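User: I'm preparing a small set of examples for a lab meeting where we compare how different chains pack in three dimensions. I only have the primary sequence for this one, and I'd like the structure in token form so I can line it up with the others. Please keep the answer compact; I'll paste it straight into my notes.
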Amino acid sequence: MPLRAGQRTLVFGALFICAGLNNAHSDCRVRPQITGNTLDFHTVERVHDGDTLRLEGGKKIRLIGINAPEPGRNGEPDQPYAAQARNRLQQLVNGANHKIGILEDGQTRDRFGRALAHLFLPDGTNISALLLQEGLGWHIAITPNTKFLGCYAQAQQQARANKRGVWEKPDILDAALLQPEDAGFRLITGTVARTGQGRQHIWLSLSLNLSVRIEHKDLKYFTSWQPKELLHKRIETSGWIYTYGDRNKRKLGMQVHHPAVIRVIE
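Assistant: Understood. Below is the structure token output for the 266-residue chain.
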């Protein structure tokens, strides 16, 4: 019997298994638990791109845990794999008869007003994990939305190891060579030359003009090591680069929320 928009399937919890991640179908999925939690199913009206869709009624949903390549705008070309990511999400939606399960996390809206959620197929398959495993986006970890974070990280590791999608020829930029026009989502590498602390954040300087910033409220997620321990180490990280400072001498910043997106290279 088809599910109606908004129909609730009872006793689904957010239990997840991160061991192995042989495939995203058997991990990161919700499993029936007697917890009183629910998984809402809604009808998808339109897929915008590889990480955003619109429900019947107009509500726009941004998938948690993944940033898909962007379609081109204003005459610009698509980013590599943007079309593949959108087409794959559309294929999954079509295969589910446009009925998608929604599970919210700690933060339910982004700064653009879009709803944030983990999305699932009727069999419990986690859509973000599946897309990450196929290399159709990059793992992002933005607190407090950390449900399934370990599974998402492992899905990306598998795609990277097998050179799938965006990991076939990853575009990793040297922090020392970044320019203001490089603003946007980037995968970067650089050596931490300096560290410092302000009233609201700790910063790691990777070059003369790029600082990675970690807010004090996110330090609770750094349980195995502290950001200042990265001094003189070469790291790889990802996130949105933004510009700030004097108009004639723009500086670059990147905010990181969780150690899951920081990798020590040497």
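A couple of notes for your slides: The first strand starts at residue 8 and ends at 10. The CA atoms of residues 175 and 190 lie 5 Å apart.

User: Perfect, thanks.
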